[in-house]
Design goal:
- This protein is about 75% helix and about 0% strand.
- The longest helix is centred in the N-terminal third of the chain and has 75 residues.
């Protein structure tokens, strides 16, 4: 019995243990499962983390590799490959500044307009960086996007504008807009900021050497002579000095500069043309010998051949060009620039039959995108050769000319070339229409407005002339001679009189020694009843300049107003000795009327403090 009880106890204990074990195992499994799941989740998360991190590391490595490759290719001059690598990087990282810098520099080195958009994106990503805005403005200027350039400069904070770099870019923008006075002011400000910067000194000197201010031009000449010893500026300085010496007819200096220029390693074919221009003045025989030596070299390159022909056409040697044409193979005359130069030579010598054949012949099929000029020359030949035949010639001319205009396809460069041709051959209506269109393009506006100014002056259309002068003044408000012209015409036409008096004063304040400005202000003072003050101003001007027929009109009027009979008669004679404008003719008549009244008066009202002008200059003074 005890054994049974003992066995039963063992059985009960074993069952209890097994039950406990089963219960424990039952309770342990969910915990294990949870632990396993947690472990798996952690492992997955760690794997994902390491995968993402590894992928990011790989992507960063790949992008850095692309960037280094693009930069290396750019440095090696492999610009297309550099752009391709940078474009790939930009596709992976759209706002990558390094990629944009590579694309911008590569485009600029290839002279591609895409540079503007890349610089614009960089400036957008760096809105407070003045250098980025200046680079954007420079790129926009390079490709004639003047509005974008102005916008970029306007984005630069006023506190960042007083730098040499800003003044230089602002100066080039002013030049592109035709504001020459502002260009000089900006270049001068750059030099003031960095007086030891040779580039800034060169820019200012190359501009000021053409100044009417003798002191400025002399200083510019000295600066350029110094820079002609500095390698990067040697050739540019010599070009400017040679041109200046030829203009001043200083043949000894010109000979020196011409020889130095020809020995320069950077000499171009255009430089040889500068030298030809000088040697023609120096010695006709030597010039002819040199010209014959230059011709074979020019014939090797279509661009040089066209350049030499154009130079000869413009310098009274078109007849020589026509003879030369007959000696050259047809293949050398078939390029677009040469075809144009040949047509121009025939036009200059007025050989209309040969011009018509040249512009119709299949041999000249190489006009390419200059086809519009072929039609234009053909139209000119038609009009000139049949000018007496009536309506048929006019109809054919108009048809050809309209076809030429249509082929310009609103391309500013083509419209400009066609406008120049129309002005050269005095096609007044056609040139006016073209210049009006060209004037809408900012980089070409100044030339277009100046052409319209000459056209309206020639036709004595003073109302249109006044409008053009206003536009010129708006584009170049600091240019004193333009301001004076606008003021004087306004006073003559009695248009915007109050503003005209104000403009006359502004012009004089800017350039008191410039005869046009001084005479205009003196005229303004006279009209305001301050004639003695006006006389005092002209008294200080050079006598030889006062005897210019236009200036003489106003001096005569001032003297007549003061009843200085002898002096007024002298300047009336000087005015009548040349061609004056219709409005000036009215002023001269007014002066004569005043003189007649003063002569008939028994007691002329002579000023108690008469102002005497210098006597008429001698021939040597003139």
């Amino acid at each position: 019995m005890p054994e049974r009880i003992k066995e039963a106890g063992h059985r009960t204990a074993r069952q209890s243990f097994l039950g406990l074990k089963s219960s424990f195992q039952h309770n342990l499994w969910p915990a294990r499962l949870a632990l396993m799941v947690t472990a798996l989740v952690i492992a997955f998360l760690l794997g994902a983390l390491f995968f993402n991190y590894g992928s990011k590391l790989f992507e960063d490595w790949r992008q850095n590799r692309l960037l280094h490759r693009a930069a290396a290719l750019l440095q090696e001059g492999k610009l297309s490959e550099a752009s391709q690598a940078a474009q790939e990087l930009l596709g992976r990282r759209p706002n990558s500044l390094p990629a944009l810098y590579v694309l911008a520099e590569a485009a600029e080195k290839q002279n591609l307009q895409e540079a503007v958009s890349w610089r614009e994106q960089i400036a957008r990503l760096l809105p407070k960086d003045p250098d980025s805005e200046l680079n954007f403005a420079s790129a926009a200027l390079r490709f004639g996007k003047l509005d974008l350039a102005r916008e970029a400069l306007d984005q630069i904070a006023p506190t960042d504008r007083d730098t040499a770099a800003f003044h230089v870019v602002a100066g080039w923008l002013a030049r592109a807009e035709g504001n020459l006075a502002e260009q000089e002011e900006q270049f001068a400000a750059a030099v003031k900021k960095e007086p030891n910067n040779d580039l800034y000194q060169f820019n200012l000197a190359a501009l000021r050497i053409h100044s009417s201010d003798a002191e400025k031009s002399a200083k510019a000449r000295d600066t350029l002579q110094g820079l002609s010893k500095v390698t990067p500026y040697r050739t540019g300085a010599l070009r400017a000095l040679l041109n200046d010496a030829v203009e001043r007819n200083d043949l000894a200096e010109a000979d020196n500069f011409a020889q130095q220029l020809q020995m320069s390693p950077e000499v171009t074919f255009s430089d040889y043309l500068l030298c030809l221009n000088f040697y023609r003045k120096l010695d006709e025989k030597k010039f002819r010998l040199l010209l014959e030596k230059v011709k074979p070299f020019a014939a090797r390159n279509p661009s040089d051949l066209a350049s030499l022909m154009n130079w000869m056409n413009q310098n009274g040697l078109a007849g020589d060009v026509v003879k030369w044409i007959d000696k050259l193979p047809a293949a050398q005359l078939s390029s677009p620039p040469t075809s144009i130069a040949v047509a121009d030579a025939y036009a200059v010598v007025k050989n209309w039959s040969r011009l018509k054949r040249w512009t119709r012949s299949p041999a000249t099929a190489g006009w390419a995108d200059s086809e519009y000029l072929r039609l234009a020359y053909q139209a000119i030949a038609t009009r000139q050769s049949q000018s007496r035949s009536g309506g048929t010639a006019n109809t054919e001319f108009e048809t050809l000319w309209r076809s030429a205009e249509q082929l310009t396809n609103e391309q500013p460069e083509h419209e400009l070339a066609l406008a120049r041709l129309a002005s050269k051959w005095e096609l007044e209506n056609e040139s006016e229409e073209l210049w009006q269109r060209v004037a809408e393009n900012p980089p070409m506006r100044r030339e277009a407005l100046e052409a319209l100014r000459r056209l309206y002056r020639t036709k004595n259309e003073t109302g249109k002339l006044y409008d053009v002068l206003q536009r010129l003044h708006e584009s170049s408000p600091n240019e004193a001679p333009i301001t004076a012209d606008l003021a004087r015409l306004g006073l003559n036409l009695e248009q915007n009189t109050e503003r005209s008096h104000q403009l006359a004063r502004e012009a004089y304040d800017r350039a008191p020694k410039e005869v046009n400005c001084a005479v205009t202000y003196a005229f303004s003072l006279s009209r305001l009843g301050r004639n003695p003050e006006g006389l005092a101003i002209v008294q200080n001007l050079p006598p030889d300049q006062l005897h210019d027929q236009h200036a003489a009109v106003y001096v005569a009027l001032l003297l007549a107003e003061a009843s200085q009979l002898d002096g007024a008669q002298e300047y009336i004679a000087a005015a009548e000795n040349g061609k004056i404008y219709p409005e000036e003719k009215k002023l001269l008549d007014e002066a004569k009327t005043k003189l007649a009244a003063a002569a008939a008066s028994p007691s002329p009202a002579i000023s108690s403090t008469p102002v005497e002008l210098s006597p008429t200059p001698t021939a040597s003074q003139r």
